Amino acid sequence: MIDLSTLYDKVSITSNTVLVSTGIVLLAILIHLYHTYWRLSHIPGPFWAKITNFQRVYWVKTKRAHRIHYDLHDKYGEFVRFGPNMVSISDPAAIPIVYPMRAGIPKGLFYRTLMPYTRKGGALPAVFNTRDEKLHKQIKNPIAPLFSLSNVITYEPFVDKVLAVMFEQINARCVKPKEYVDFGLWLQFFAFDVMGTLTFSKRYGFLETGKDVDGMLATIWTYMTTAAPMTQIPWLDEFWYKNRYTALLRKTTGFSILSIVGKFISQRLEQVKGAGVESEDEVNKKDMLSRFIHITQTNPAVPKWVVTAWTFSNVIAGSDSTGVVLRTIWYNLLAHPETLQRLLDELESKDLTRPFPKWEEVRDLPYLDACVQEGVRMHPPFCLPFERVVPESGLTICGRYFPPGTVVGVNPYVVNRHKPTFGNDAESWRPDRWLGKSDEERRRMEGAVLTFGAGRRICLGKYIALLEIKKMVPAILLSYKVQIRDPKEFKVENSWFFRQMGLIAKIEKREQVNS
Ligand code: HEM
To answer: Which of 80, 113, 205, 363 meets the CB 3.0–4.6 Å disulfide criterion with 230?
Structure first.
């Protein structure tokens, strides 16, 4: 027979145990939340951002995070708490402290979410996204000289080649009376095909076909819209996107660029198999892939897999980014015709090589440079705070102490609009703000623009991007008359990368064109 009193005792002991355990878990959560909240409680910010990262995930999901971040800094000041452990800073004086030349303030988990992942290969580290400072040094140092200002000129013939294809295609497809084309798309095609030519001597074929070949641009954008919210909450990315088991539930292919890069590298390795090592002079006339392979041949300490990492960094960090800056400059020139006319006057007053002016002729033209600086300032292609982790020693930034492990970052879109540095019209296009400045003022302004990053992890390809931009803008302007249909059609979205739509324009040949 069942002894009911013993049964009741057992049930009540079990329910008491459940109650006590639940209480302990809840208490632990409360203590954790309080500790998390309290740790950075001296930094102002929206309430929910102090206890959860989902608030900042939401901001990114709106595709307007750049504006939301700007408004938050307007409301709360130069230090704003964006997450339980994340503080955003808008004071340019913080740039050399958060992004110093020395090692010791590594990139945050934000960047791991941007690593392409395959079940077989795991997450691929590249120069851009690796957080491991030793690995970064190991894979960046051998290629750094290829990206120097003095070496940039060796890439000029590749840019000229793509300009020639672009002119051919514009003449054939775009120069039609009264017909408008998506000029913004052509600028993006140009930026991608330059990077393909420069890296592998192969164009993806965007310009030739006038189309998004194999939906590659669309794939990259889908990847960005998926990855961008994850950058704000890396544990979720680790669980869902960087996990061999959950990967089974989805079609995780890294993404198509990685497979294209892999294909081009294997083809090239096959071609050079058995051939001797070329001289430095010979290889410096060739594309970057040849130069990367040459580095691995002459430096046995460099692991072979880095050729993929270098090539991937080039393509992913260098194509869309240059496209965004080109579109920003063109949009603003077209929407402010008086600035376009001034630039044209400057170009026509010089004896420039036609149809493609040479880098040496255009690199120091003052008004062209002012327009490029202003475009670079106004719409940085990467538009979320560049996150870094405070080291064991803690860090004092502009008078505020941050404990070890705190994630800090500056959003280039916000700091590039710092009114005490750029003036009350910092939201407007005004190339003149860069002219007539003393060396010191100019240095201060340039130091406050974070578009290319800063310090140890500054963009490696900055001079290559400037080569493309400073050659492409004058070449098109001197040969074609471009007229925007309606500046109001131009729209932007932010998913870590900026996306711009609606740069619709009419293109006519200028009379003196000799191409
Ligand atoms: C206007 C065009 C470009 C912009 C605005 C830009 C911007 C940036 C930024 C902001 C970073 C560092 C981000 C951070 O701190 O997390 C970066 C890194 C990098 N960029 Fe660019 N980039 C551009 C063009 C290029 C080009 C054309 C290339 C290649 C040819 C390139 C290659 C790289 C590489 C390899 C890194 C990683 C550097 C490192 O971590 O040491 N970029 N870029």
So the answer is: 113
